[in-house]
Specification:
Blueprint (H helix, E strand, L loop, with lengths): L1 E3 L3 E6 L28 H7 L26 H9 L5 H8 L18 H14 L2
Antiparallel strand pairs: 1-2
Helix pairs in contact: 1-4
């Protein structure tokens, strides 16, 4: 628990409930990887770009496992945002308070260069599968 000048004198943040920003490289089947066959709908890609997006390998239902650590932010998503020089609001906040360090990301990982390239790849894959 953190109180004080970071969030104001009357504010209490409980970091155990905030998504963690500790992953540095995307997982083997991350939807943000450019070397993985696209597998999600282009509309969903548009939804997940620009916001917090948890790595699918770190999420769980709290009712099933109360001891599971907080979800991790998807490293592929973080890398994409940094490549575009467009970090979302929580990335900026977490960096300011020391919960996120963009210099530790694996920027050489095979992640799309921008949102348009990712959306286009997923559109082509969806078209080819029909």
């Amino acid at each position: 628990m953190l109180t004080g000048p970071i969030c104001g004198p009357n504010c209490i943040l409980i970091f155990s409930e905030i998504m963690k920003y500790e992953l540095k490289t995307p997982c083997s089947n991350c939807p943000f990887r450019s070397d993985v066959k696209p597998y999600i709908h282009p509309e969903r890609v548009e939804e997940i770009i620009g916001q917090e997006f948890s790595c699918h390998k770190t999420t769980t239902c709290k009712e099933q496992d109360n001891n599971h650590p907080a979800a991790q932010h998807c490293a592929g998503s973080l890398i994409l945002h940094e490549k575009m020089d467009q970090p979302h609001q929580m990335m900026r906040i977490c960096e300011r308070i020391g919960l996120y360090d963009r210099t530790k990301l694996n920027m050489d990982a095979p992640v799309y260069d921008d949102a348009e390239a990712m959306i286009e790849a997923h559109e082509i894959a969806e078209y080819e599968s029909t």
